[in-house]
Design brief:
The protein is of the alpha/beta class. The chain is built from 32 helices and 24 strands. Bound molecules: N-(methoxycarbonyl)-beta-D-glucopyranosylamine.
Length: about 850
């Protein structure tokens, strides 16, 4: 009876300490216990990796406590929840971030020291969780950190890929891709929920069934796969709140194939089952071209279906009908990748929960919000109708029905303008009939967000002009931000300590606007000395890494100039490399005595190219070919070095960003939706050399154009310049450096030919030739400033001081208040 149960619970409580404590002895005991019982090594003999595992498990225990409390609290309060659906999360490492957010970094450091270990050394043992490609995926990770820190009742949902983003290996200067089987050594940061599973169905047919005197549609699927939840607790900083990132893995389902076991071919039946797991096996490594692959669509639906079953189950736990659904649930579509969720919500509500179509539609229009991350047309997904029809026949019908109602409505609004109607249709009639996922997302979401102000402007005036004219109220923007927890506190502890010292508080870690308080000290000579020391230490750390990796010795007195991001033509790494060739050429051609005046540079480039993106791969090769020549030229010495950092990822970024004096964000204006690397570099006191693109426009407003090095064609000039093609004059220096590459000065003449063609007059879509002159001028201005270390340091301080607006805390608050309509729900201590 109840009495017995109560006695049992009381006894259990009596046996437990209320919470794990984090004093020195407890931490040491917990770590050693995990060495012995979890890692199963003797506490008298374990190596750094085992120590890391034990350490991670002791942190995990503390995360779990808070996480339980938070989930119970959310359940009790039943607030409106935000569900963040994203096919990609680029989390990187978890250890340092967790202990910092839990507020026990120093305690762990001391505990380990006495045991003979160093926290930093153990932290290096952790591999990156790289379940994403680039900007979009890292943004999701930053936003999860902010959602937790700001106490929002939020869940992230995604896929637990077995292979994360490929590892980039450079052989002879060429990129090779190696699989990232990241779960090989276990993952202490996730909790496998063997009982949180849902069936996900594919294929089959749709049948009409009699129902309540009428007909209704019933999907009879042909294949079932099981989704298993893996929970990743995400701790907030300065709060007990710890939220959930729930990632789904595919497993064979018992419902799948009962009959195949009767065929006698037992071995093959089992082997076939195993194939279910391929759905969550590999992340697509191309971040902006979609080829309508079945596996990709399967991944999308798999994660959408499992997430929605989970969300609806949670809703039904505390509600007896659906009336309050839109008051309790907000669904955020991170790009178009999860937009099948729209059709799935309709299907579940109508086919399974038997709501009428109009009511379900009304809910859909209230719960979905959509953020797009690109301006490039090839970044907009299209799904061939044939593919959808075979994989998800019922969803195709629903999308057609949505489209029918919408087009009827549209005709009433805009008349029979068939061109416009066909542009705005969710269904594209063409050689390959397909579904335009962006149109689906726009039609069905109440808000369409851009990721910076100018991005939103481009959406309204170009990409989604037709929609903007119809529904101006839907279009908004939330300028991206990054979390200062990871990008200052974790990655740059010395700068972090310095900031806290000069502000007299650590409060900026939660309230980043306080960084502006550094402004008043921007000319203080003591701060300058300390600032320079911190920067130098970070540069030394980076220089050691460069030498260990590539054997290249670089001088920390040189200006460290970095460009780190995915390799893409529009991001113009090629402009950077051509600029480096120009610099090299100048050094070669100058009088020996003049070389003293050259400001020494270490140019650092890092980034991955999509495996099938030939041009990007050639850019990587060119970088290596130029480096080979420049780095080994005795005429040049320390005046110029070029380093390509292989396998750029979150951890590498944490090392490179604090060591950057200058960083380049040089996309052709009108192409970068926002850019977030620039924000991390700005926070860390790097000066920016940039075009007026994406969020840079807003950075200029915060720190002033004279606090950075700007160049290049303006956004409004670009279309006309492209039109002009060969009519504008390209500077002689540009023609000269391209010719050097063409003529085989760096070898590989044939291989680079097509790359050179890409920037020839008339063909130069990204305007490298047009922008070259002003690029060189901006570079010269940077050199000139670097010589004046006092000025440089002041600008560096003002960069950090002016970076407050670019915290993801601000972004998330805007989303919460203006788009999702959610409120903080803080777990009491
Ligand atoms: C955009 O290219 C933006 C991030 C985050 C990227 C970049 O400008 O800062 O998204 N898009 O919003 C992307 O990764 C796959 O697309």
């Amino acid at each position: 009876g109840g009495g017995e149960a109560r006695v049992r619970v009381e006894r259990m409580f009596g046996l437990m300490d209320r919470f794990l404590t984090s004093d020195l002895i407890s931490l040491q005991k917990d770590i050693l216990d995990h060495v012995e019982y979890t890692v199963a090594r003797s506490r008298f003999s374990f190596d750094d990796f085992e120590a890391y595992q034990a350490l991670a498990h002791s942190v995990r225990d503390r995360l779990i406590e808070r996480w339980h409390d938070t989930q119970i609290h959310f359940k009790r309060k039943d607030p409106k929840r935000i569900y963040f659906l994203s096919l990609e999360f680029l989390m990187g490492r978890s250890l340092s971030n967790s202990v910092i957010n839990l507020g026990i970094r120093d305690q762990y450091g001391d505990a380990l020291n006495e045991l003979g270990f160093e926290f930093e050394v153990l932290a290096e043992q952790e591999g990156d969780a790289a379940l994403g490609n680039g900007g979009l995926a890292r943004l999701s990770a930053c936003q999860m950190d902010s959602l937790a820190t700001l106490d929002y009742p939020a869940w992230g949902y995604g896929l637990r890929y077995q292979y994360g983003l490929f590892r980039q290996v450079i052989l002879d200067g060429y990129q090779h891709e190696q699989p990232d089987y990241w779960l090989n050594f276990g993952n202490p940061w996730e909790i496998e929920r063997v009982h949180v599973t849902y069936p996900v169905k594919f294929y089959g047919t749709v049948e009409d069934e009699n129902f309540n005197g009428g007909k209704r549609k019933v999907w009879v699927p042909g294949e079932t796969v099981e989704a298993v939840a893996y929970d990743n607790p995400i701790p907030g900083y300065g709060t007990r709140n710890t939220i959930t990132l729930r990632l789904w893995a595919a497993k064979p389902s018992d419902q799948m194939d009962m009959e195949s076991y009767n065929t006698g071919d037992y071995i093959n039946a089992v082997v076939n089952r195993q194939r279910a797991e391929t759905i969550s096996s590999v992340l697509y490594p191309d971040d902006r071209s979609y080829q309508g692959k079945e596996l990709r669509l399967k991944q999308q639906y798999f994660f959408v279906s499992a997430s929605l079953q989970d969300i609806i189950r949670r809703f039904k736990d505390s509600h007896s009908n659906f009336d309050d659904f839109p008051e309790k649930v907000a669904l955020q579509l991170n790009d178009t990748h999860p937009s099948l969720a729209i059709a799935e919500v309709m299907r579940v509500l109508v086919d399974e929960e038997h709501l009428d179509w109009n009511k379900a539609w009304d809910f859909v229009c209230k719960i979905f919000t959509f953020t797009t991350h690109t301006v490039l047309p090839e970044g907009l997904e299209k799904v061939p109708v044939d593919l959808l029809e075979s994989l998800l026949p019922r969803h195709l019908q629903i999308i057609y029905d949505i489209n029918f109602d919408y087009i009827e409505e549209l005709k009433k609004r805009i008349g029979l303008d068939y061109d416009r109607l066909s542009r705005m249709s969710i269904v594209e009639d063409g050689a390959v009939k397909s579904i335009r996922m962006a149109n689906l997302a726009i039609v069905c979401s109440h808000t369409v967000n851009g990721v910076s102000r100018v991005h939103s402007k481009l959406l309204k005036t170009r990409v989604f002009k037709d929609f903007y004219e119809l529904w101006p109220h839907k279009f908004h923007y939330k300028t991206n931000g990054v979390t200062q927890r990871r990008w200052i506190v974790v990655s740059n502890p010395s700068l972090s300590a310095l900031i806290s010292k000069w502000l007299g508080t650590e409060a900026w870690i939660r309230d980043v606007d306080l960084l502006a308080g550094l402004q008043e000290h921007a000319a203080n000579a003591d701060l300058h000395e300390e600032w320079k020391t911190v920067r130098k230490v970070n540069k030394m750390r980076l220089a050691e890494y460069i030498e260990a990796m590539s054997g290249i010795k670089v001088s920390v007195n040189a200006m460290f100039d970095v460009q780190i991001k995915r390799i893409h033509e529009y991001k113009r790494q090629l402009l950077n490399i051509l600029g480096i060739i120009h610099r090299y050429d100048c050094i070669k051609n100058m009088e020996k005595s003049d070389r003293r005046k050259v400001v020494p540079r270490v140019c650092i480039i890092g980034g991955k190219a999509a495996p099938g993106y030939e041009v990007a791969k050639k850019i990587i090769k060119l970088c290596h070919a130029v480096a080979e020549k420049v780095n080994n030229d005795p005429d040049v010495g320390d005046l110029l070095k070029l380093v390509f950092i292989p396998d750029y990822n979150v951890s590498v970024a944490e090392l490179v960003i604090p060591g950057a004096d200058l960083s380049q964000h040089i996309s052709t204006a009108g192409n970068e939706a926002s850019g977030t690397g620039s924000m991390k570099l700005l926070m860390n006191g790097s000066l920016l050399l940039a075009t007026e693109d994406g969020s840079t426009v807003e950075i200029i407003e915060e720190i002033g154009a004279d606090n950075m090095f700007l160049f290049g064609a303006k956004m409004h000039e670009v279309p006309a310049l492209r039109e002009k093609g060969s009519a504008f004059k390209v500077p002689l220096q540009f023609a000269r450096v391209v010719r050097m590459v063409r003529d085989g000065y760096f070898g590989f003449q044939d291989y680079f030919e097509s790359l050179c063609d890409k920037v020839e007059v008339g063909n130069d879509f990204y305007l490298l030739g047009y922008d070259f002159q002003s690029y060189l001028e901006a570079q010269a201005a940077a050199d000139k400033t670097f010589v004046d270390q006092e000025k440089w340091t002041r600008m560096s301080i003002l960069s950090t001081a002016g970076s407050g607006r670019f915290s993801s805390d601000r972004t998330i608050e805007e989303y919460a208040e203006k788009t999702w309509g959610i409120e903080p729900c803080r777990c009491p201590f």
